[in-house]
Design brief:
The protein is an alpha+beta fold and 459 residues long. Among the domains are: 4-176, Uridine Diphospho-n-acetylenolpyruvylglucosamine Reductase, domain 3, CATH 3.30.465.10; 310-420, 2-Layer Sandwich (Alpha-Beta Plaits), CATH 3.30.70. The protein is built from 16 helices and 18 strands. The strands form four sheets. Strands 14-9-13-12-16-17-15-18 form an eight-stranded antiparallel β-sheet, with helices on both faces. A hairpin with a 4-residue loop joins β6 and β7 (140-143).
Length: 459
């Protein structure tokens, strides 16, 4: 039986779902259906609208945590920051915790999430046991791996709101120790494949257990894998929310200890390394920049402000500097092709550093809209920044070359940022025919924007 607080949370949740449905009914037929929420971790600009959206204001919390079953019932707009705060006191964590605090559970499931446990735990949607979805038809249905709505359950990941919005998700949880012990292992590019493949197969590296693994490539001659293991004790713990900066420590220390909380959010303080663009890594600026504002959502708002007003772009233009193209992408590359892709990327794009995160589907079946192959190890390569637009080139040319290269290397690309595919290529890569079949059932009047329109034409 749920506790008293859980009962109150269930009642509040039911009331919030009622308000959500009422807000859906107030949207006139023919008007686009969107969420009315202030924050986003997407990097796709979209057409501004003054029209009302779905009221998700009451769907931001954790309904309950079952410590014995190692499950949690979570509202769709709950951020991972709030979710982790509810599970860590029980020594539990979501199976996969994306790197940025304000990513929501519903967003990670209908989009894509990944982190250093993904080599053993897969992707966030693989730990979902069931979920309630407000569909494009205005109904709330409960989708499970089996049963009436099983097709919706399997097609929902990577649908990005084109089939509906999750209001509640029941997820599996994983045990985590109070501390995470880290080893930063320098490897050559050609050593990445055998090292990662060994870790995925054995859960060990040099006879030590590995519970978490990611990496950073600073240059083709300097790459590191960071191997983490659960630990009940720590020699000392580092703090990278102050003057020290986490990604720099990878080069400076062979071993490190973080609390479980600080490990999960190690990348958020400096938005990986992207805070440098705002001066937040300069010692004087860092001392003056309040800790509470050194976090990914603050940096994202600064980027959004620039996207709307173009102050920095105009200043660069007045200084005679070339315009810049935004290159913000995460791509999955088969581990056997990883070193070749990294060399191509450094030669053709030249952004440094890049992030590496191995992943492998937990189950034996692929998911329709993001067709990674079961049993195959991939490595997420993340790169986030801008590059100068060369004379005679156009904005988007570099991203298009990357898209072509990723396909050529047998990889796949996440859709949270800019995409430039033509419709036929997009439909093939993201299995839009399968999405269309399910959409006809759950969004028969096409109230929800299509996937190509969201990802490419930015509607």
């Amino acid at each position: 039986m749920p506790s008293t607080s859980d009962v109150a949370a269930v009642v509040a949740h039911d009331q919030a779902v009622g308000r959500l449905r009422e807000s859906y009914e107030r949207i006139p037929p023919g008007e686009p259906v969107r969420l009315a929420k202030r924050s986003s971790n997407l990097f796709r600009p979209r057409t501004d609208t003054e029209r009302p959206g779905l009221d998700v204001s009451g769907l931001t919390g954790v309904i309950g945590v079952d410590q014995d079953a190692r499950t949690a019932d979570v509202q769709g707009m709950c951020t991972y920051e709030d979710l982790v705060a509810a599970t860590l006191p029980h020594g539990l964590t979501p199976m996969v915790v994306p790197q940025l605090k304000t990513i929501t559970l519903g967003g990670a499931v209908t989009g894509l999430g990944i982190e250093s446990s993904s080599f053993r735990a897969g992707l966030p949607h693989e730990s979902v046991l069931e979920l309630d979805i407000l569909t494009g038809a205005g109904d709330v249905v409960t989708a499970r791996p089996e049963g009436e709505h099983a097709e919706l359950f399997r097609t929902f990941p990577n649908s990005y709101g084109t089939l509906g919005y999750a209001t509640r998700l029941r997820i599996e949880l994983d045990r985590i120790s109070p501390y995470v012990a880290l080893r930063h292992v320098r490897v050559a590019l050609d050593e990445l494949d055998p090292a990662i493949s060994t870790i995925v197969a054995d859960g060990k590296y040099n006879d030590e257990p590995v519970h978490f693994v990611d990496g950073v490539v600073f240059s083709p001659s300097e790459a590191y894998l960071t191997l983490g293991r659960n630990s009940d004790a720590a020699v000392r713990t580092s703090d990278y929310t102050g003057q020290q900066i986490y990604y720099r420590s990878i080069r400076q220390r062979q071993q490190d200890f973080l609390t479980a909380h600080d490990y999960l959010w190690r990348w958020d303080t400096d938005w990986f390394w992207c805070s440098a663009a705002f001066g937040a890594q300069q010692p004087v600026v860092r001392r003056l920049w309040p800790r509470r504002w050194r976090r990914s959502d603050v940096f994202h708002k600064i980027v959004g402000f620039e996207n709307r007003h173009h102050y920095a772009a105009r200043l660069n233009h007045r200084r005679g500097r070339p315009d810049r193209e935004r290159v913000v992408q995460d791509v999955e590359i088969p581990v056997a092709r990883l070193s070749d892709f990294l060399r191509w990327f450094d030669r053709e794009v030249g952004m440094r550093p890049v992030w590496l995160c191995p992943l492998r589907l937990r189950g034996s079946e692929s998911w329709p809209l993001y067709p990674l192959k079961p049993g195959e190890t991939y490595v997420n390569v993340g790169f986030w920044g801008t590059v100068p637009i060369a004379p005679g080139a156009a904005d988007g040319d570099v991203n298009r070359r990357i898209e072509q290269a990723v396909t050529g290397f047998g990889g796949h690309k996440s859709l949270y940022s800019d995409a430039y595919y033509d419709r036929d290529t997009f439909d093939r890569l993201y299995n839009v025919p399968a999405l269309t079949t399910v959409k006809q059932r759950y969004d028969p009047d096409a109230r929800l924007t299509g996937l190509y329109e969201k990802a490419v034409t930015r509607q």
